[in-house]
Amino acid sequence: MVRPTTDKQWRVMKRHEEIFARYGGLVNVSVRANLVLGSDGATTLNGSSAALSSAKDRTRFHAMRAEFDVIVIGGKTAITEPYQKTPIPLVVVSRNLLIPESLTTNPILFWWQISPAAAIAKCLAEFGNRVLIEGGPNFLIAALPEITEFAITRTKISGGENKVDLTKLLSEFTLVSEEVLPDEIFQIFKRVN
């Protein structure tokens, strides 16, 4: 274990300890994963989630961002999705040190080489109690123990890539809200425990 040596390191460590000690009991902690899915479980179509998303879904998506303190994504999402400008800080969690040139214009970008769980704890300590995850399936699976809720848009589109087993992903979550529209369904799931 590395011991902190500066005042800032001590403060960050203390805040992380407080978060971990109180995580289950914190008021208004929300670690929400936002996901759009095709009817076949695909999370991308032609390499991007935008191709699965409708105008109504994008409106919800942008409104949802206003409710959170920070957005967290994985390195692959940073490469394939447009994150040049975000209304709140953007944290990219990646083993890769090379930041895609498209992201260098984002003035509130943070690039961390830590695990998804450590990144979420650090976000809670440094940005606030509301973390929005917009990562892909691999990132979501790695972050799953930290996620408190899912916002899912199900579309009728099929034939995409990066499929996810939603039943397995949501095995510890329960449906709390649903809006059914002709071409898509918006759902919110919360962790059961």
Description:
The longest helix is centred in the first third of the chain and has 16 residues, at 7-22. The chain has helices at 7-22, 55-65, 75-80, 116-126, 137-143, 166-169; strands at residues 30-37, 42-44, 70-74, 90-93, 109-112, 130-133, 149-155, 161-163, 173-180, 184-191. It has one domain (28-191): Dihydrofolate Reductase, subunit A. The protein is built from 6 helices and 10 strands; from the N terminus they run αββαβαββαβαββαββ. The radius of gyration is 17 Å and the shape is globular. The chain is an alpha/beta fold.
Based on the model shown, name its key terms.
193 residues, alpha/beta, Dihydrofolate Reductase, subunit A, eight-stranded mixed β-sheet, two-stranded antiparallel sheet, 28% helix
CATH class: Alpha Beta
Portion in beta strands = 25-35%
Going across the major beta sheet, what is the strand order?
5-4-3-6-1-7-10-9
Low-confidence stretches: 19-27
CATH topology: Dihydrofolate Reductase, subunit A
Total strand count, please?
10
The count of domains is 1
Distance between the termini: 31 Å
Give the SSE order as H and E letters: HEEHEHEEHEHEEHEE
Secondary-structure class? alpha/beta
Number of helices: 6
